[in-house]
Design brief:
The chain is mainly alpha-helical and about 170 residues long. It has 6 helices and 3 strands; from the N terminus they run H-H-E-E-H-H-H-H-E. The longest helix has 20 residues.
């Protein structure tokens, strides 16, 4: 929060990959040694998720720079946020989705990591405080209405409407 007001998100830029899906689309998977991620996590006193987001942000920044398509504004990602508390003893998932910066506007990887950690901490607190995200709002709308809205919305605008350019998961 800023001055007691909910955390304000930066606008979502339109990246060239925020378009209709076509035959030249792909899904990217990667793996890094968890020990290396935990070393960075411990050194900078952030979370594993923050490190993963920073790696993705750095990779997207490099990719978009080589394509000549890096937006001035930082790209944003959907990330899962656990709503479980230490008192939860159920064998179930309690998660929501929030958006967080990938700090693709930051040249320095340490600055990128710190910016991501600061914002992800704020959105997690917001989620645990009962704040609603775009996904909770979309889930209460009738499916037919959501389908009509997304089919009439230009592809680049869907990223802005939903608040994220990509989905990142470290599972």
């Amino acid at each position: 929060t800023r001055n007691g007001k909910p955390h304000e998100k930066a606008p979502v830029p339109v990246a060239h990959f925020n378009a209709d899906l076509g035959r030249y689309r792909g899904l990217v998977f990667g793996a890094l040694p968890l020990a290396d991620i935990k070393t960075v996590k411990s050194h900078f006193q952030v979370t594993v998720n923050d490190v993963v987001l920073a790696v993705v942000g750095g990779g997207l920044r490099d990719y978009l720079l080589t394509q000549g398509n890096l937006p001035e504004e930082a790209l944003r990602a959907f990330m899962a946020v656990s709503l479980r508390t230490s008192a939860d003893d159920e064998f179930s998932n309690k998660i929501t989705i929030r958006t967080v910066t990938l700090a693709t506007d930051a040249v320095d990887p340490v600055h990128r990591l710190r910016a991501i950690a600061q914002e992800s901490n704020a959105v997690k607190k917001e989620a645990h405080g009962g704040g609603k995200g775009m996904m909770e709002i979309v889930q209460i709308l009738p499916p037919l209405l959501v389908s009509a809205m997304t089919s009439m919305t230009p592809p680049g605008q869907i990223a802005r409407m939903m608040g994220a350019n990509v989905v990142v998961s470290n599972i």
